[in-house]
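Quick question, first post here. What does this chain look like in 3D?
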Amino acid sequence: MVSTDVEVDPAAELAGVYRYVGAGGTVARPTKLGPAMVFNKVKGHPGARVVIGVLADRKRVATLLNTKHEELGLMLRNAVKNAIQPIVVGPEKAKCQEVVYKATDPDFDIRKILPAPTNTPEDAGPYVTLGMCYASDVETGESDVTIHRLCLQSKDEISMFFTPGARHLGAFREKAEALGKPLPISISIGVDPAIEIASCFEPPTTPLGFNELSIAGAIRGKAVELVPCLSIKENCIANAEYVIEGELLVDRRIREDVNSNTGKAMPEFPGYTGPANPAIPVIKVKTITTRKKPIMQTCIGPSEEHVNMAGIPTEASIIDMVERAMPGRLLNVYAASPGGGKFLAVLQFKKGIPSDEGRQRQAALLAFSAFSELKEVILVDEDVDIFDMNDVMWAMTTRMQGDVDIINIPGVRCHPLDPSNDASCSWTIRDHGIACKTIYDATVPMKEKHRFERAKFMEVDPKKWLPDFEA
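> Answer (accepted):
Ran it through. C-alpha cells below.
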C-alpha cells in the first residue's frame, strides 16, 4: 500500500490519480495493477482519508483471505457450503458508532460528512461504490447484503440503482413498496474484505433469503458481528468505518443526474460510463455513524477491484454447478478481467476417457445457467494457465477452428450494462439486454491429444542463479 499527503480533489482527481497507480481492469489504458493507495488529505473534508484499490489485485485478495489466488473460487464454494450466520452484539462492540451525525442536526449534510469521490468529471455526483447495503424482508425478516450504485443527491437523500431482477434487496424493496411501507436500510462502508467479496454472490448459488454475510463468516471461521442501528429498525456491520442509516421511500423516484445533467451515471465494470437512470429509488438518510478518524473506502467502477469482487463469486458458482453435474472434470474457473468479472469465464476442463468428449460444452452450458449475466465461455485443457490470458489466447489460436468450435446461443437474456446488447446494434436483438451467448471450445479432441503435447523443458530452480527470483 502507498499513501500521499498531497491534497486531492475527490471530484474526478482522486480516481484520475489511481487510474495510473493500480486500477487495472477495463479502465482505459494507460493503467496497471498496483498497490492500494491512501489519500490523507481530501479537499473539502478536513481530517478525512480515502483508501482505494484494496482488492484491485487478485493475489492481494488471496493474501487477505488467507489462500492462494488460483484457489479463490474453490475456497468460496466451500464457504457457501459451510456458512456461519451473523450474530448481533451489544453496543459496546459498535466501533462504527463512535461518532454520530443526525439528520435533525442543523448543519447535517451527507456530502460534507462522506468524502465520496466521483470517478470522472461526467459523473452524476459523488458515489458510494463500496457500501454494504443491508436490509430485511418486511414479512419474513430474512436479511441480505449487496453492493449497489449509490449517488449522493442532496443533504439527506441518496439514489440507489437496482439492476433489474439481479439483487435480493430489489425483491425486499418491491415487497415493502407494494405494502406501502418504507424499507429500512443500512449501508456499511469500510469492512472486512471477506464481507465485500461474499456480498457479490447471486442466485442460484445464494437464493432469495440467503444472507451472504454467512459466507464471510465461513471464510473467517467466525460469525460477522452486527449491531442495531440507532435510528432505524435494522442492523449494520459493527466494525465498519462509516454507516449510513436510512429508509427506501415508497413511490419516490429521482433522476440520477439531477445535479449534473450529463445524462451519465458513473463508469461501470464493462469500461463504459453507464447512462443515468431517469427514475431511481431514493434513500432518505436519518443518521450517519462513524469510527473516530474513519477511512472512506472506494473503488473505480471498471477497475480490477470490481473484477475480483464480482468475478471470484462467479467462479465459485460455476464450479459448484458443474461439479454437481459431472464431478472431477472441471479443474478451475477464471472470471477474466476483460469481461469485468461478469461477462467472460475461462473453464479448465479435463477429459479423462473418450466419453468425456462433448462434456466440456455441457459444462459451458451449465456455467451460463449458474450465472445468467455471463456472455462468453472459453474452454481450455488442463495444461493451460487460465489466469494468463496470453496462454488462453495461445490455446484458442492453436487448438480451435472457428467453423466448428464456436457455438452461438442467440436471443438470451444477458446484462443491461453491455452497450452492444441493444436493438440499435443489431436487428436480431429483440430487446435491450437480450443478446448472444458464445462458447469458444479451445480444448483438444480426445483422440488427438498425443499431437498437442506442449514442449517439455528441464525442471530447475531459478533461485540457484537468481537468489531473489520470484515466480
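The first helix runs from residue 13 to 21.
The mean pLDDT is 94.
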